Amino acid sequence: MAMEGMKSKSCSYAFGSLFKASISFKEGLFQRLGNGKKIRIDNERWHSSINIKPKITANHPLKENFTMIADLINTDRSWKSSAVWSLYRAKEAKEILATYIPREEEEDKIGWSLTKSGHFSVKTGYWFLQSKAQSSSEKTNFWKQLWKMDIFPKWKLFLWKILNHALPTADNLIKRKIREVNPICCLCNMQDEAMTHLFRDCEITQRIWRSSMGITANQGTHLLIPEWIKNFLSLFRKRKKENGDIMEIEFISTLWGIWLHRNEVIFKDSSTNPKRITEITKENIMRAKNRRSQRDTRLEENVEANNREPDWEVGQNRSINVQSLVVDGAWKKNAKSNQWQEAIAWKNLNNDPREEFAGKIFATSPVQTEAYAVMKALSDMQWRCSELIIKTDNREIIQALKNPRETNKDINNIIKDIKRLANSFNFVCCKKVKREEVNLAHNLAIKARKS
User: Fold this and answer.
1) What does each C-alpha distance from 95 to 46, 276, 411 come to in angstroms?
2) What is the pLDDT of residues 353-407, one digit of tens each?
3) Which domains does the chain have, with CATH numbers?
4) Of 335, 353, 352, nearest in space to 444 by CA
5) Is 295 exposed, middle or buried, given 0-12, 13-18 or 19+ CB atoms closer than 10 A?
6) pTM here?
7) What are the DSSP E strand ranges found in 340-444?
8) How far is CA 351 from CA 330, 336, 348, in A?
9) How many angstroms from the chain centroid is the CA of residue 114?
């Protein structure tokens, strides 16, 4: 209903709220192709990256014969190519013919176009709404950089609350009609507590800034606290090569220390003590640095693990007569015409040297071309052997087979059918190998693409 923009006339308040939210995300949604029976040709987006519309007019004679995408699919799960070329412009027709149709019957599903896997995430949904609501690219860039900062997640939320005036300081609580709130700053007991006063203008806070980072806080009193903080974060970002990242941690940790000690004074009846703020700040600086150090160690371990060539297996290898194939796809985009050309190939390494295949296909990307090559090899060898090793130089294909949740949405259906075909063998292993190891298939694919 959200894809079509149709809302029930009689619905509950909760459903109406959910409907409004789904409408906000409509531009990022697309119909993931299954059997095509629920996807209308003329008014629904069903491609992950572009909106494909037929070129025919409302009174065109073909209009009655082709209303749903399912009408463009043959019973053998292939495209009715003549109909596709008739209904769509050449560029869009190629996109359609390159779209893989699942071999098994399954319903169409809604996908999310702003993630590689096609699955919705709160993060991309948030940035999608932010990009629609904010016209200033500079403002958008700031928030992108904030959420990418290598700091504690609770610090990111803390900064967000400060910059959006959402912290429960005394002035904010009073505005929200909260009763029995003491409006006076608990640190200096001299002025009303507001975010700008608490984090910069309070005399206790100013002493902390001067002693911890050498910042003379009273020189920026013409700025509100959000702008004051943004200016410092931007300055530290520019000084990354000069220990700006360390200064960033110290600055945020000082803000955090002021806030935590303020809460200790209010909720734990502690006495105001600038040394306590310094203790909290130093403790959190050490924790943040240790966290980064542990993260760097994990990154090194991950790099080492990624350097080991991955593989994916199904079944058990019980025979010495295992056929070994190399596969490759050749995909190239013409700079002048902006059109792509593609071909796939496979070659058997340990049987008849003439046992090979090469041919042109429709595919929208290099990874999709490679996925088609793997599937073609499996399909052609299905009745020739029971145990098979397929070697590819594409790591993404192996990762998609191992982790379907993170599969690129352009190859999601192909990966499903690769797994289905693999289950018909006693043993299948897809291995990531170096580029030079698939040269035999690569040369065949290049020759086919150029022919």
Assistant:
1) 11, 64, 13
2) 678 999 999 888 899 999 999 999 999 998 888 999 999 999 999 989 988 777 7
3) 13-124 (no CATH), 135-304 (no CATH), 311-450 (3.30.420.10)
4) 353
5) exposed
6) 0.55
7) 340-348, 356-360, 387-392, 427-432
8) 24, 42, 6
9) 7
